[in-house]
Design a protein that fits this description.
Molybdenum Cofactor Biosythetic Enzyme, Chain A; 26 strands; alpha/beta; 6-stranded mixed β-sheet; Molybdopterin biosynthesis moea protein, domain 2; Molybdopterin biosynthesis moeA protein, domain 3; 4 domains; 398 residues; elongated
């Protein structure tokens, strides 16, 4: 099996992927979820003409400078003045309270002088001043939230104001994550003389959570074919299985064989990219399988390119990568037969975005990945690029 171009590999991965089913979730649990359908207002907001200021509800024609009006009552939020404003009258009113029938403007308290049961107009208000008309924000039936919206605090508050206690959202894709290797110990553990700390699984779980999925940690499987298959068996009801390490074909790379023992239908496993050539893609029944390389940077570059659009497709979101154009701060050599993803810092100025690639791009170096703002995309066979040349950059953070 030859090396598959990246774009073709992504297209094959996403082929046949459809958004997951919808479920109703309470507003208190909806933060970060993705709407599965448009949502319309069940109420009109505000439901009545409301005062935008503290003061007095009056008739503009009567509220002339020096006029004295009789205070006929009070209207406050939650308890309106139930009468009709009569000639020569004013109603004490507070912000958010219903404007009494018969009033057409608000005399703010700074422009009024109260004396017992009367109020003197110091500075006359213009007609309809400081009155929020009914429906100023929205009307019943208005569609204000849309399928595919990722729900943040403002959207959830809006939904509450629209009269909704629950919202239809996509099921979170369950992503089971399995690390593999005798050399790995869990974070916080003490590595033996030939071991390292497992960092990929915890980082991939954070990425899944950030994408809106539900990470499921399967742990670290040792380099035994039967053990790997047993760990995979824990991926109950997962939509996606992600493995990290052991996906190549070395004598100790057993993940692919173990998954085949469990019924894996392999789609492809070699990609024309750097870092991350040994990427495995297939299916176990309805579950999508993504076998990432063990090298940390390779694992995360592949996750950004393949896991990110897969999760987003299951959420019904656009899957195209977020690319920007940047100018190189230094020259780059010509590229070879694998599409290259180069870690880079980005700076923005009036002249545009500048990309400064890291000098060392070893796929084991998480420090440069953590410091990188994006990945310069160097297509197969790209010619040498001088300083100042425009290059596409896949953003790692926005």
């Amino acid at each position: 099996m030859g090396l598959l171009p990246v774009d073709e590999a992504i297209a094959q991965l996403l082929s046949g992927v459809t958004p997951l089913a919808a479920e109703d979730t309470p507003l208190a649990e909806a933060h970060g979820r993705v709407l599965a359908a448009d949502v319309s207002a069940l109420l009109t907001q505000p439901p009545f003409p409301a005062s935008a200021m503290d003061g007095y509800a009056v008739r503009a024609a009567e509220a002339t400078a020096g006029a004295r009006l009789e205070v006929a009552g009070m209207s406050r939020a939650g308890q309106r003045f139930t009468g009709v404003l009569g000639p020569g009258e004013a109603v004490r009113i507070f912000t958010g309270a219903p404007v009494p029938e018969g009033a057409d403007t608000i005399l703010i308290q700074e422009n009024a002088k109260r004396d017992g049961d009367t109020v003197e107009v110091v500075e006359p208000p213009a007609p309809r001043r400081h009155i929020r008309p009914a429906g100023l924000d929205f009307h019943r039936g208005d569609v204000l939230l849309h399928a595919g919206d990722r729900l943040g605090p403002h959207a959830i508050s809006l939904a509450a104001s629209m009269g909704h206690a629950t919202l239809p959202v996509r099921h979170k894709p369950r992503v089971a994550i399995l690390a593999n290797g005798d050399e790995l110990v869990p974070p916080g553990g003490t590595p033996g003389p030939d071991q390292i700390v497992s960092s990929n699984g915890i980082g991939l779980a954070a990425l899944v959570d950030e994408l809106g999925g539900e990470p499921v940690d399967l742990g670290i499987a040792p380099d035994k074919r039967e053990a790997i298959a047993a760990f995979v068996g824990r991926a109950t009801d997962a939509d996606i299985l992600v493995t990290s390490g052991g996906a190549s074909v070395g004598e100790h790379d057993l993940v692919q064989d173990a998954l085949k023992d469990s019924g894996l239908k392999l789609d492809f496993w070699k990609i024309a990219m750097r870092p991350g050539k040994p990427l495995m893609v297939g299916r176990l029944g309805e579950m999508r399988v993504l076998g990432l390389p063990g090298n940390p940077v390779s694992s995360f570059v592949c996750a950004h390119l393949f896991l990110t659009p897969l999760v987003r497709a299951m959420l019904g979101l656009p899957t195209a990568p977020h690319l920007v154009n940047a100018k190189l701060s230094s020259p780059m050599p010509p590229n070879d037969s694998r599409q290259d993803y180069v870690r880079t810092r980005l700076t923005e100025s009036a002249a545009g975005i500048e990309a400064a690639p890291f000098d060392v791009q070893d796929s084991s170096m998480l420090s440069t990945l953590a410091a990188a703002d994006g990945l310069i995309v160097r297509p197969i066979g790209a010619p040498a690029a001088p300083a100042g040349a425009s290059v596409p950059v896949l953003l790692l953070r926005r």
